[in-house]
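Message: A physicist's question: would you kindly supply an amino acid chain plus fold tokens?
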Amino acid sequence: MIRFPALTLNDCETKRPNVSFARIIYSDVMSANPIDYELVTSMADPKEKSEDNLERKISFSDFLENVPPSQSRNIATMFEQSGGSVSYELVTPQLMLHCTSEMCNGLRAHRRTGDASYVSRNGRSKDIFLTYICSNCRSRTKHFSLAVQLLADDESGTAYKYGENPPFGPVTPTRLLTLLGDQRETFLKGRRCENQGLGIGAFAYYRRVVEHQKTRIIEEIIRVATKIGASEEMISALDQAKSENQFSKSVSLVKTAIPQALLINGHNPLTLLHNALSDGLHAQTDEKCLEIAQAIRIVLADLSDRLGQALKDEAELGKAISTLLKSNAK
């Protein structure tokens, strides 16, 4: 076992090849100083790569679309011989990727742009960069950093994904990013940790987001409560919770003071978040922290969607009533 120097959270966002992350020890999440982690790692033997992953061949499009960074796969139909030469051209398929442009804002076909990539039969891997552009809007791009190697059949190959930009993973809903305000970048760092399987890092980032944005979240809940005509008691309890500095005290004040439209399967979302965050990191494994972090993200996303939908529904209802009243007045 090798002990490495303390690392910052940014260092924890990317796994390096052949390093097995055994444990990241949380030290000081709420202090004014940067969050530090002590990383205890063991250098993994390259032969210990997942045999199942390497034995099963997948398509190159599947690899680029669905395999996270720091992973290797055997790829079927990856190369084709370039004329009569000894070089082999990398076959780059069309991909279905999320495009964030206002015109698209959804899954769109992407095609590789730029010069072709070639390898030779020398038994060595080659580092390459691929750039894909949205075929619809022609304004958004996706970049991949890979190591590729030709196999003995002169057609299939092995690919290792160093990274990609925009980062790998499902797209974060716009409503959630809006709700998070100035904690957006912190949340996205947690998202990248989650994509890399770094449970403790993801948990720490998400906890910081929730605790720093507690007031903003409650303010949005008050907006909904006011719009739907909630009782004065409910709004008063929410106002008191907003003024509390401690998240636990805020939650205790609003256990039942949440509009029905914002309940998640009948549960208060603030209570769900508090329960998830209350155990701390020291007693949890990295796998358990990853599971909890995923749950925190899902609850935050659902809450942001319910907040937006409740305000939208109330606005549409108000407009409909206004239209009918004007119609009857004629």
Q: What stands out?
A: Residues 286-329 form the longest helix (44 residues). DSSP finds ten helices and 13 strands in the chain. Residues 276 and 295 are 8 Å apart (CA to CA).
